[in-house]
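User: Okay, second chain of the day. Same drill as before: sequence in, C-alpha cells out.
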Amino acid sequence: MTSPGTRTGEKADDLDVEEALALVNGNPGPPSGTPDGRASQTGASSHDDARHHRGPNHHGATHRHGDSRHRATPWPEARTTAERAARAAVRAARRAPVSAPLDAALGLTLAAPLAALTDLPPFDTSAMDGWAVSGPAPWSVRDEGVLAGHAAPAPLTDGEAARIATGARIPAETTVVVRTEHGRTDERNRLHPTRKVVHGQDIRPRGQECRSGDQLLPVGTLVTPAVLGLAAAAGYDTLTVVPRPRVEVLVLGDELLTAGLPHDGLIRDALGPMLPPWLRALGAEVRTVCRIGDDVEALHRAVAFSDADLVVTTGGTAAGPVDHVHPVLTRIGAELLVDGVKVRPGHPMLLARLKDDQHLVGLPGNPLAAVSGLLTLAEPLLRTLAARPAPEPYTLQLRDAVHGHPHDTRLVPVVLRGDRAVPLRYNGPAMLRGIAAADALAVVPPGGARPGQEAELLDLPWTTGGIGVCFT
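Assistant: Same drill. C-alpha cells below.
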C-alpha cells in the first residue's frame, strides 16, 4: 500500500543524490527546523525511572533529572526527527549517484531520468501468430514464413501472404495480420479470412510505445521489477541510481548464543539473524554484523572507527551496569537527537549523530522492542538516505479492542482480514511469535483502542512487494 512517489516535469540532466532526495520528498529547499536540519530538542531518558546525569555532549545538550515520560520524544516526532537527520546527512555527504547493473538495481531510486535509447518497438512487428497479408483476399501463401529474431523479410506482393510469428518483423507492403484463428487455407494453399479484417490490424508500428529520446520515468522513481523490464526493453544495461546507505550492525550482550539450545542463563541471539535482512528490505547495504558482547572498549572502537552511514546497535541503551551505549556516545562527543521514545515496546531506543553524515540507531535488546525501533527510527532514516518514496499512510478498523499504555503509543502486530486488522496475542517486548505471523503493526494511541476504531498501520517491508528484500 505504498505510492511510487514519482514526479513529472523535473529537469532531464543527471542529478546528485541531494537533488534526487529533494525531488522524491517534494522539498528542494532545506528541511524545517533548525538551519542545519538538526532536531530542535534533545530527549533524555529511555527508562521510566530517571537516569543519572551523563554530562553535556559536544553541542551543549545536557540530560535532566525527572520523569522520563516528559522527556522522551513522542513517537510521531521521533520519526520526523529521523527523516530530518537523514536530509542533513545527505547535504553533508553529497554522495554521488552510482551506475548499477540491472540485476543489482531492484529497490533503488533513479537518480537520472530514464529516457528511451531506441524506438519501442524498434520496427513494425506482429502482435499475433498468423499471416502477414497484402491487399485483398484471398491470398496466396508463400513457402517461407517469418520468425522473430530474423533479418527483414522480403516484401509482400499484392495478394500474397506469409506465415508470421508474434514479435517477428513485418514484411514491407503488409496491410494486415490475420490471426491464426481468424483464417483458413484451402487445397490450393490460398488463405481466406473467417471474419472481417481491418487495415493495420494486429500490427505494432515502430515507436508505438515510445520514440528514442522520450522520457519514460523521472528522477525519484523506485526501481521495481517492471521498471527493470522497461529499462531493458529501452536498451539499458545499467541504471543511474541513488546508492544504498551503508549499515554496520553491532550485536551486544555476553548472554547471547549463536547456535544450539539456551542453557545456563544463556539465550539464543534473535536479532543477529533478523536485522540484516530486515535492513536490506529497508534499502540498506549491510556491510558487517559484529558481535561485541558487553565490552565497552570494543564497542567504543567499533563505533569510533566505523565508516558506515548508519551504525545499528542492539541492547545496551538503558542505564544498567553493562549498558555501554550512552557512555560510548558521550565519550566520542555524539549528539543525541532522540533518547527514549514514547512508544511501547521499544521505549529505550535512541538516535545519535556521530558525524555530520553518520548516525547511530540504538535498538533495545528485546526482539519486538527492537522491531519497534527499526520502524520508528531506522526506517525513516534509511528511506530518506536512499531517496525512497514515503509510504502512503492508511488506516483500517481494528476487529478487537487493544489495551493501551496510559501515556505512550503502542505498536501491536496485526493480521489483515478483509477490511479489518486483527490484533495478535503475542505482542510482549521479548516476543517474536506475533510479528512473525503479522502483516503489519497497528499504531495504537495512548489509552488504547476500542473494537471498530480506525488505526494507522505500518506495513512490514515484505508485505508490500518485497522491494529490495534479500534473505541470502
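The chain has eight helices and 27 strands.

User: Thanks, on to the next one.
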